Queue: 4 jobs
Job 1
Amino acid sequence: MIQKFPVPVSGYKGFDMAQVTAGGVSVREVIEGTLESKIHRGLYFAGELLDVDGTCGGYNLQWAFTSGYIAGNQIEAENQ
């Protein structure tokens, strides 16, 4: 339903203030292994859209990369 949603960035507070944002879609609402929504079939979530938090040190980045890979592969498989 959302085709375009521009969000202008007006600045940032620097590395010392950088944090991971908690919250997002509960992992109980997605299918494990595909990251597809249990509520809306064909809708996939990845990265910080899901309520997954890791400690500092790259874990959140790794989750973003891995979950994007999983969801993307599932979407590709369904469209072949």
Note: The chain is about 25% helix and 0% strand.
Job 2
Amino acid sequence: MNRTIISSLLATALFAGNALAAPITQSFDTFGTLSGATFSGSGIPNNAVAITNIGSSAGGTGVTLGLTAHQRYFNPELTNDGAGTFFANPGVDTHAPSPANPYATWNFAFYIGGADADSYNYKLFYDFDFGLNTEESEHGQISLSGSFQDSWNLGMDFLDSDIPGLMSSPNFGAFNPGSPGEYSFALVAYDTQGAEVDRSAIAVQVGQIPEPATLALLGLGLAGLIGVRRKAR
């Protein structure tokens, strides 16, 4: 985790009680190009972004939230349905620090901007569960404040951390970049009382998603493995 990310995150304060017991579904005002967004990288596409505007966007006032997904380095480009769902291939990226520290072949990227960005608090929700309809309360979450943009990979170690007063990791184990499934993300703005103002949300479908019956069998298998490990300790 680089110093820029650490300092940006530590400059924020976590406000509790915002995660919902409901799945994250795609949400945005427009889906398309977010002019001026670089997501703190070089060559990251900004032409397929789920964009939400809070307040007026004319004259630079208000706040703009943006979420997108894109390939990491020279992996296959992601496609999308124009309605907030992106399509990626499962697999482990070959660029450092992966594959020793496994990263997915795709990243998710987010953007907070606008003259009124300091007027709200924000949370970024992210998903390690390859199953469908993961509840928001099961997602990892990081508090953010002010204008901020970046591109992250679910394989990054810090996303699997718990930092009191700042972030919590997902409740569903560790991320597996080789697992087909669907991963959901939300960037949410809150007022100073902690009430949600608006959000941008997307999903990334990776490979062929297992049928619900298959997911249930996998869940039973994982439960069995956990039981075996506990007995072996």
Note: Confidence is low (pLDDT under 50) at residues 1-16, 214-219, 222-233.
Job 3
Amino acid sequence: MSDDNAGKVLYTGKTHTTGGREGFARSDDAQLDVRLSPPGGGKAGTNPEQLFAAGWSACFIGALGLAASKHKLTLPAETAVDAEVDLAKSDGGFFLQARLAVSLPGIDADLARSLIAEAHQTCPYSKATRGNIEVDLTLA
């Protein structure tokens, strides 16, 4: 950790993975225990891109909640994020790109877009990817 990221650690996710994309991953508390398989391979198991999409979308909903609370709003119970994370390849090698489609039913479209922009500034996954991968945010 660099000094400019110093702060109070709120939680540390710990996993043990063996076998890479054709292995297994398990969290230290056994709440996550998954078989891994390459994307599109048709084998049983999930892949890192699906796990990343799930984590990011869950975190993004939390960030939306923080943004909404600043506007004295409560997120609709049906709030959802459909995340897509692509594993892609170019001449420069492998890379990721992502799309987040955010559904905020019952919230005015302009306000919803504002909440999405605010959430993208505070979500730790968004911060980690900013400037590193292409991200497309849309209001669903």
Note: DSSP finds three helices and six strands in the chain.
Job 4
Amino acid sequence: MALFRNEDHVYRVIGEFMKIPSRPRTGEELHNWWGQHPAYKEYGGEVEQINRIGEQIRRSRAAFVFYVTDPKAVISIDARRPKPGEHYDVLFGRGLDQPDVAIQTTGDVAHQFWGGNINVPLALVTGKMKAKGSKAKALQLLPRIVPAFPLYRRYLELIDERALLHALKA
């Protein structure tokens, strides 16, 4: 059985997570989102880390489309021409014209990827992930988003996605 119930579940978890660094964030904003959650603690440096990830993606000036199967969902990141005050756009349910990279994978593999459990070159070779477009741009993006992997686990805890968090530990 797939980890995600439907496309809305993918958008609510992975999509919303990808939106967090899409513009500069503040500690107050994070506190307003999750401050009432019993697991919320301010570790320090997280806001800077989120903003650094967003800035790195913005500097890529690239567009990426993630085609998720099982369940079917599409999430696009467009850093080609960000709006003032933003690092990049995140779109749900539609691809982009001429993305630099299009990645296709299952929802379960996407979840494991964001949890830091996937070796991307191996996943590409074995077909767990399929990439079209600039492999160089794809490999440039990877080190820019690796710092997000521990944040994804924390995010799952804060949005009460215990089953998804458990699936990363299994």
Note: The mean pLDDT is 91.
